[in-house]
Each structure stands twice: as C-alpha cells, then as structure tokens.
Write a structure and sequence with these properties.
The chain is an all-alpha fold and 460 residues long. It has 2 domains: 221 residues, no CATH class; 214 residues, no CATH class. The chain is 82% helix and 0% strand. The chain is built from 20 helices and no strands. The longest helix has 48 residues. Keywords: Cell membrane, Membrane, Transmembrane, Transmembrane helix. It is a multi-pass membrane protein. Its main location: membrane.
C-alpha cells in the first residue's frame, strides 16, 4: 500500500513537473527576446551554455548516494545512511569549493570578448557572467543529495515538486533584473541567487522530512569515497554518451551535408523527442520505489513495477508515434513557420527509433536505481560512439534519411542487454515478463472501463 501511495504521488507531481517545464519554456523564450532582442538572446544562449560542461565534474556522486541512502533507510540502517550522506556532502562540497576557486582564478584572464566577438570594454561583464554561472553549476551538485534525503524518507514527490518550481524562481529573478539592466553578469547573478534560495529551501524541507538523517563530521568515512567514485564515474557515462549522440551527430551532419541539413535534423529531432519526455517522467516516478524494493529484496513487487513501467512506456510511445505520424507535419510547419520543409517520409524515419528506444529506456532504470549500472554505462558509451560512425556513413550515402536512422544503432545494441540484466536484477524471467506486461495491460483497460462506466442509478 505504501508503494502504491508513493507511486500515485510521484505520478501526480511528475505530470505537473512536465507541464511546468513546458509552460516555462513557452514563456521564457519570448520574454527574454523582448528584453534582449534576437542578437542579444542568441549571445546569451551561447554564453550560458559554456559552463554547462562543468556538470561533468559532478561525477554522479549525488545519484549514487541517493540510491544507497534509500536502500539503507528501507532496511532500517540509519547509521549507514548518515555515513553516506555526510561523506557525499563532504566530497561534493570539496569539489565545488575547489572548482569555484579555480574558476575565479582563471576566468578573468581569458579573452571571452574575442571568442564571442564583443567589444573589449565588456570583458569584465563577460568574466563575471562566467563566474556566476559556473558557481551556480557547482552549487547545483548538492541538489541530488538533498533529493536522496527526500527519497530516503519516501517523499520523492516533494523533491520533484520543488524541482518543478525552481525554473520559475529563476525566471522571476531574471525579470526583476531585466527591468533595470540587460547586462549579462547581472542576469547570471540572478540565476546564482535563485540557486542559493532554492538550496536553502530544499535543505530546510529535506531536513524536516527526515530529521534522523543529518550531516555529521564524525560520520564521514573515506571508504564511502571509493564507492562514490567507482559508481559515480559510471554514472557520468550517460551524460557523456548523450553529448556524443546529440551534439556529435550534428557536427557529423554539418561536415557531410551542411548547415541546412543540420537545421532540418535538429528541429525534427526536437519535435520527435518530445515523446521522450513521457519516458523520463515514468523513470522519475518508479526510480525511488525500485531502489527501496530491490534494496529490501522485495523482488516480486520490483518485477511487477518493472513490467508496468515498460508496458506503459511502450504502449504510450506507440500511440504518440502514431499521433505524430499523422499530425506531426502540420505541427512542424506551424512551429517553424514553414521556413524548413519536412518531407512526410523523413518524419516517419525519425519516429521509428522512438519505438525501439521505449523498449529499453524505462527498463534501464532498474540498473540505475540499485547502482548496478556499470555494464550499461560502458555499453551506452560504445553504442553512442558507434552511432556517430553510423551517422557519418549513412549521411554520406543516404543524406538526412540515413542520419535519422543512425540512432537505431544504440537501441539495437542495448535492448538485449538491458532487458536481460533487468530481469536478473528483479528475479524475473522473459516468459513471465512478457505475460506480466500483457496481464497489466488487460488489468489497466479493465480498471479504466470501470472508472468510466456510469452507474445505472446515477444514469437514471
């Protein structure tokens, strides 16, 4: 019952989070354009993207510790959870402090204005912009640990709810600043202040959710550092693989086909990958509960939750693909103002890999939820690198159509491994897994019919 309640809360907040992010993106772009202008907004996007690479310094420590804390608390081992929390906070604080000091020491001496082609008089403005944005990135490393404390308290929905309001806090402070100045350093400072405010609120609420799980200098253990490094480095393979897959293929297409094809590929991929937002939501909903169920060896419930997650994602993705195959072309024309021509057959080729992606993506959360993700991480990196090579070859011979199909490389490599490993971790078998998905689908349809059925007395 507790697992069911947690999943319901996570689902409600998960849906709201996606709606919140969508509304934020719709509002943010025209708002910033009105204050900064087209050229100013374009420069802001370039400048603000530079510190994003610093996120790799996070090393995935927060995600690893969140899983370990959830498992420890589920087994009633408060001391172990406190050691994990304290060790992770100490390690992340040290990395963040060193990172900020290095940024402050190096950034002022880099000629940013030369790279961005702005007047030399704006050097200090650009330097402070990079410093504030970089500091905000380093401070954000703590958020995963705080999220872990919520998860350990079986209140992951509160963390998700806080995350959904964070962009709005950023936007509020940005608007306040832009009312008085369009300087990039003031804009970046507003983002830093919003991060500080978010961390204060998050720290206070996460502490109240589980007072017994608090930071202690005495609880810091060097042995925990080894676990965090070993598991954390593997976690970083996923953002690195994403960078290879999503940025690398744009560079390949640019070199082989030119900028027009890049624009077509990038915009179509953005439209199609909106379906992946649904997969990410499902993963966020079931991840905390899978950590607890697998950590306490309740594999029967873990296997069922895995089946429900994969079945729901697959069916929903197929439905979304069918909808976009019919209405996607019209949506694309409306979105781009018919500035870019998208052939219908090309849209179908972009949609095809989404179905294959849905087979393994949600299943992979089983690996990450219990920190058994090293094998997946290695294969994801290899698959991403091979996809880049495939993209180059297919682009050369088949144009953008070949580039669209190149992402299937990742799916075809990962599907057999991910499903097989997930079944082993949940104590499931392939026959039970497939039959279980069918059963859950029938049960879901039956439940939906009962909910929609109008009682005779009420109808009369």
């Amino acid at each position: 019952m507790r697992t069911k309640q947690a999943l319901i809360k996570n689902s409600i907040v998960g849906v709201w989070s996606k709606i919140s992010i969508l509304l934020f993106r719709i509002i943010q772009v025209p708002l910033l354009l009105s204050f900064l202008g087209v050229e100013g907004y374009g420069l802001w996007l370039v400048i603000s993207s530079l510190p994003s690479w610093l996120t790799l310094a996070n090393m995935g420590f927060g995600s690893v510790s969140a899983n370990e804390m959830s498992i420890a608390m589920a087994n009633g081992d408060v001391n172990k959870a406190r050691k994990i929390l304290s060790s992770t906070v100490a390690l992340i604080f040290s990395i963040s402090l060193i990172g900020i000091l290095l940024i402050v020491s190096i950034v002022p001496f880099i000629p940013w204005e030369v790279f961005i082609k702005l007047p030399a008089s704006r050097h200090n403005e650009l330097a402070y912009t990079i410093i504030w944005l970089s500091s905000s990135v380093f401070l954000s490393f703590t958020t995963d640990v705080l999220s872990g404390r919520f998860r350990a308290a079986r209140r992951a929905h509160v963390s998700m709810l806080l995350d959904s309001f964070k962009p709005w806090l950023e936007l509020l402070l940005m608007v306040i600043v832009l009312r008085f100045s369009a300087r990039y350093d003031y804009l970046a400072l507003s983002l830093l202040l919003s991060m500080v405010g978010y961390l204060i609120i998050n720290t206070w609420l996460s502490g109240r959710s589980l007072p017994s799980l608090a930071f202690s200098f005495k609880a810091i253990e060097v042995s925990q550092f080894r676990l965090l490094f070993r598991k954390g480095i593997a976690f970083q393979a996923f953002p690195l693989g994403n960078a290879l897959l999503f940025q690398g293929n744009l560079l390949v297409i640019q070199g082989v086909l030119g900028p027009v094809s890049v624009a077509l590929f990038a915009t179509t991929r953005t439209l199609v990958r909106s379906i992946n937002q649904l997969m990410e939501m499902v993963n966020a909903i079931i991840w905390p509960e899978l950590s607890v169920l697998i950590g306490t060896n309740d594999l029967v419930k873990a296997a069922r939750l895995h089946r429900i997650g994969v079945g729901f994602t697959f069916i929903s993705s197929v439905v979304c693909v069918l909808i976009l195959s019919v209405f996607g072309h019209s949506i694309y024309e409306l979105w781009t103002g018919k500035a870019i021509a998208l052939p219908q057959h090309l849209l179908i080729l972009f949609l095809l890999p989404i179905v294959f992606n849905s087979i393994w993506y949600t299943s992979s959360v089983v690996h990450t939820s219990c920190n058994q993700h090293e094998g997946l991480a290695i294969r994801y990196l290899i698959a991403s690198a091979l996809a880049i090579i495939t993209c180059g070859v297919l682009s050369y011979y088949k144009g953008v159509e070949g580039a669209a199909l190149s992402t299937l490389t990742v799916d075809l490599i990962l599907i057999p491994y991910v499903i097989k490993r997930s079944l082993k971790l949940t104590g499931d078998t392939m026959s039970q897994f497939i039959a279980g998905i069918g059963h859950e689908i029938k049960l879901g349809i039956s439940t939906a019919k009962q909910m929609l059925r109008v009682p005779k007395k009420v109808a009369e």
